[in-house]
Write a structure and sequence with these properties.
Strand content: 15-25%
CATH topology of the largest domain: Jelly Rolls
Helix content: 25-40%
Number of helices: 7
Strand order of the largest sheet: 1-8-3-6
CATH class of the largest domain: Mainly Beta
Order of helices and strands: HHEEEEEEEEHHHEHHEE
CATH superfamily of the largest domain: Jelly Rolls
């Protein structure tokens, strides 16, 4: 292998490592990798589904802009929100090894997603180990997020559930929470109605546990994080 070829490999590896922390920062991927993965793009309007639960799997996806909500529907007709996926995050990774999608993906707002056909994506992962590591990083973070949601939803008291959410969301070494999404979505994350969340927040403010100012909440009591 010539020095120029080694140079291309070295530069490619540096780029992949640099952007590994934000899985598949597509703008910075080398063109040869984009071509190998056969990336295409899809634009969605608010409320438009990208795929439905039970559809044959064809690809995994990365959100370029907007936000995608993943939902599961039970046989009894109940809808269960898994989580939201924001710009720079991947989703539907289980499609790499499953025949059918196990949830429905819906655009919360006008969104644009990159589509990675699963066979081409798997072949590229085998060729570029740094991308495999990036995928593991992304999945580890996702697992941690899901673990937190399960913990929150297991707390019976709505008050304790909200307090635990605020403790987890507070800035490191601080007691301030900046609400980065609507109360309705936060309530869904915790398995509460928006009305129940609003009542708890009002009571916490009334008894001096928190103060509220627009989209910011400050916990007055000392945090007890784990």
């Amino acid at each position: 292998m010539g020095s120029s070829e080694w140079g291309v490999i070295l530069v490619t590896s540096i780029i992949l490592v640099k952007y590994m922390i934000n899985f598949l920062n597509i703008d910075h991927l080398p063109e040869n990798i984009k071509m190998a993965m056969a990336i295409t793009y899809e634009s969605l309007t608010a409320g438009q589904p990208l795929f439905h639960q039970g559809d044959l799997t064809r690809a995994i996806f990365v959100v370029i802009s907007g936000q995608i909500r993943l939902m599961h529907y039970t046989d009894a007709g109940q809808s269960i929100k898994h989580y939201e996926v924001k710009a720079g995050e991947s989703f539907a990774e289980a499609a790499l090894f499953n025949e059918f999608y196990d949830c429905t993906a819906i655009a919360d707002i006008p969104s644009r997603v990159a589509t990675f056909p699963k066979q081409a994506f798997l072949a590229t992962l085998r060729q570029y180990p740094d991308l495999s590591e990036a995928l593991i990083v992304q999945l580890a973070r996702r697992f941690h997020q899901v673990k937190i949601l399960l913990e929150l939803r297991s707390i019976r008291s709505a008050r304790d559930r909200v307090l635990r959410y605020l403790e987890i969301s507070a800035h490191p070494h601080g007691n301030t929470v900046n609400l980065d999404k609507p109360l309705k979505e936060i309530a869904e994350d915790m398995g509460l109605s928006q009305e129940a969340l609003s009542r708890v927040l009002s009571q916490l403010q009334k008894d001096g546990t928190i103060t509220r100012k627009k989209r910011q909440i400050v916990l007055i009591q000392e945090l007890n994080r784990t």
